[in-house]
Amino acid sequence: MFHPPPHLPDVRGRGFAARSALSDAVHWLEPRTVALPAEEVAVAAAAGRVLAADVAAPIDLPPADRAARDGMAVAAEATLGAGGYNPILLMEGQAVPVSSGEPLPPGTDAVLPVEATQASPLGVEALDALPAGSGVERRGDQARAGAVLLPAGRVLRPQDVGLLAGLGMERVAVVRRPRVRILLAGGPRDGRDADAALLAALVRRDGGVAEVRGPFGRAELVDALRAPGADLLLVCGRTGLGADDEAPLALAEAGTLALHGLALRPGDSAGLGRVGDAPVVLLPGEPAACATVYDLLAGGAVRRLGGRPVELPYAVRRVPAARKLVSEIGFVEVYRVRLTDAGAEPVASAAVPGLAALARADGFVLIPAESEGVPEGGEVAVWMYDAPAEAL
Amino acid sequence: MFHPPPHLPDVRGRGFAARSALSDAVHWLEPRTVALPAEEVAVAAAAGRVLAADVAAPIDLPPADRAARDGMAVAAEATLGAGGYNPILLMEGQAVPVSSGEPLPPGTDAVLPVEATQASPLGVEALDALPAGSGVERRGDQARAGAVLLPAGRVLRPQDVGLLAGLGMERVAVVRRPRVRILLAGGPRDGRDADAALLAALVRRDGGVAEVRGPFGRAELVDALRAPGADLLLVCGRTGLGADDEAPLALAEAGTLALHGLALRPGDSAGLGRVGDAPVVLLPGEPAACATVYDLLAGGAVRRLGGRPVELPYAVRRVPAARKLVSEIGFVEVYRVRLTDAGAEPVASAAVPGLAALARADGFVLIPAESEGVPEGGEVAVWMYDAPAEAL
Q1: Long-range contacts of the stretch A88-95 (C-beta < 8 A, 24+)
Q2: CA distance A13 to B314
Q3: Which residues have a Cβ under 8 Å from the Cβ of B25 and sit 6 or more positions away?
Q4: Which residues lie below 8 Å from residue B205, measured CB to CB, with a gap of 6+?
């Protein structure tokens, strides 16, 4: 029978003698979750992926002077003095119809807009005088050969993918997606369906490939933890103080249990460790607590492995607290809130919110460890669950 | 040979006699792009989809009083007077170990935290006095049977998908994704690769299913426009004033050309129409102009068809203009800008920015039609290309 190391006693039926600071847990994970190596993917499927290396302009962009509008390519000096009341006839070959993007014909250095030309029996007339370069995009105007167009680490936007395709690239090197294995701990009666769906969706949101296995009892969990092929393991459930809360023991048996018990509410039974090189996060089975530990601990690891910005992918709004939010000194407490006219209103207690209450929330407020809470009317930062959508 | 209706003259070689307001184009599209019917998908794949109908709680949640923490379920009155210096021995059957989430055993109405109990030779002792209900989540605390948990129109969050899975649902009704057919106009030399990749990525970002066809000459384009199976058609390229700019003519031949020429820069050669019931947007081939017309016109249609919020999916930051932004009265002008210490700095002219310049932009500023522009130091709203990521 395995016994946990003395500095991490078996907490079952005893309670946590001490809990680690959330920041310590975050710092433990940081050096163990660095950006994965590159892989090549089709440019057409690269939006949202993370660029693994700088992309530089292979040639000047545009490669030659070209028309910046539809019209007549002309030698600018031939339009000298032209105007609405003084049309100037352009000689044969002095006015060449061009479409926007076409190279400038030899001998021309400006493009008259279509509206500044008219047809006459003798040929095309200019209705406006242009300086040289008007209506022309110069070679290299957008970028010089060798200039970095997109830096390594860029999360590719739709327009970036357009740029790469326009350069003639068919494949591009991006950071490999982290393979995140979600191991459900517990028996079939534990109802881990909510956790499984929740965690898989969170991992995908953060750019990972999610794979769900279980639910597992202790011995199976040890085996599943030892199975190769994951960049990060999330064990969900069986982390608490009950007799069957054997996930920390299974991790200690399969590898190393580095930390168990966090000064975080909900989510205080979370843990950390590793099996071989793969970091492991233990998440509580109560779904809202599981979501909290994912957001404040595991999510950053997924994003870091994928080369993404580690910050929470939520916009912040600063509003008053609609009522007092209490918090125990030493604990980070997470209140799910909805935004009302009065400000941020908790939808449930921090301790056991539940997913049904979470569904009513617009976001969450985080009370730092050193704070006793926020008085009614005090300003709080609300991390907003939904992406911003702004009206024009 | 088809001739366009007199109110929409062939602009090739002539120029636009008049251009429509962007707002008129948006209003034309609105009634023609309403949310599509529902389809059922697996709950596990439903994150990010749009709920087609309210989901109500089938039963009280939780369905019965249950432990809100790991500990000893007790009758609260049995702990009366207990404290650290006054442990009270609990009789056999008066203290039942429970894990968080388990139903309360009969005769108990509170849960002593593990830390507030100790073992003694005679049995379990309480170290704290509890009121009834402490450590207990009551039946219906999260939601009453019949209460709406998630409203129709909700873009399902990871935790929502967890909630649905936790209710035992395997499938859920969501708004069908719009099928958006992207038709490239022009010959192989037109280089529509950038547009194709850009538009497909934008359509996917907005929840649509993108399908790219072409490039097509005029006759093929007419046939492609008439092919069934699309909820929205985007025709890209050949919208301008050159002799080969036949996309508007092809649309008029296949269906109806409702509008050609927008008071928008870049993007002034955009158009609108329909083939049967399917709305059609004509987008310029210059990629940055194409992106502009997508964002300000087509994107809202894709989102509306998919039941999503129609607003631009960009967060706004208000900053000073780092230099003067000029704009022609009557035109909506879009400046791509990067954020510097001095504020919003254009990366290129509004007229022909190009994707390489766009890559340097953090977002865009939109100068409304009634404005001549913004002076240096004047406040502008910047629509930010990247999703917000907020540090804790």
Answers
A1: A88/A125, A88/A126, A89/A120, A89/A122, A89/A123, A89/A124, A89/A125, A90/A123, A90/A124, A90/A125, A90/A126, A91/A123, A92/A123, A95/A123, A95/A124, A95/A126
A2: 50
A3: B259, B262, B270, B272, B297
A4: A47, A158, B313
Tokens 């502008």 belong to which residue? Answer: B380
Residue B80 CB coordination number (10 Å): 11
Average pLDDT (A367-381) is 96
Strands B343-346 and B332-340: antiparallel
pTM comes to 0.94
| Contact (Cβ atoms closer than 8 angstroms) between residue B302 and residue B204 | no
Cα torsion at A155, A156, A159, A161 (round to 10°)? Answer: 170
Of all residues in chain A, what percent carry a pLDDT higher than 70? 96
Give the torsion through C-alpha atoms of B356, B358, B362, B367, to 10 deg: 160
Q: What is the mean pLDDT of chain B?
A: 92
Contacts of A357 in chain B (CB under 8 A): 142-143
Q: How many CA atoms lie within 13 A of B369 on its CB side?
A: 13
Residue B15 pLDDT: 83
Condensed to tens digits (0 to 9), the pLDDT of residues A7-31 reads 577 888 788 888 999 999 999 999 9
Q: Do B163 and A388 touch (CB under 8 A)?
A: no
pLDDT higher at A348 or A148: A148
| CB B34 within 8 Å of CB B305 | yes
Would you state the pLDDT for residue A99?
A: 85
Q: For the CA atoms of A320, A324, A330, A334, what is the dihedral angle to 10 degrees?
A: -60
Q: Flag whether pLDDT at A2 surpasses 80.
A: no
* Strand ranges of the sheet holding A71-74, from the earlier edge strand across to the other edge: A95-98, A71-74, A110-113
How far CA A186 is from CA of A235, A310, B375, in Å, comes to: 10, 31, 64
pLDDT tens per residue, range A167-188: 999 999 999 999 999 999 997 7
Interface probe, candidates B10, B128, B142, chain A, greatest A C-beta count within 10 A:
B142
**What's the pLDDT at B3?**
43
* Residue-wise pLDDT tens digits, B226-279: 999 999 999 999 999 888 899 999 999 999 999 999 999 999 999 999 999 999
Q: How many angstroms separate the Cα of A262 from the Cα of each of A32, A270, A304, A352, A369? A: 19, 6, 21, 16, 11
CA distances A362 to A77, A104, A339, B103, B159, Å, are 63, 55, 6, 30, 12
Q: Could you tell me if B94 and B106 are in contact, meaning their C-beta atoms sit under 8 angstroms apart? A: no
Q: Would an 8 Å CB–CB cutoff place B191 in contact with chain A?
A: yes
Q: Which residue in A371, A387, A391 sits closest to A379, CA to CA?
A: A371
The closest of B26, B201, B50, B61 to A163, measured between CA atoms, is: B201
Question: Which of B27, B128, B159, B264 is the best residue to mutate to test the A interface, defined by the most A CB atoms within 10 Å of its own CB?
Answer: B159
Q: Are residues A14 and B241, on separate chains, in Cβ contact within 8 Å?
A: no
Cis before A353? omega within 30? no
How is residue A210 written in tokens? 């999610």
pLDDT of residue B171: 98
Integer Cα distance of B338 and B319 in angstroms: 11
Three-state DSSP class for A151?
coil
B362: helix, strand or coil: coil
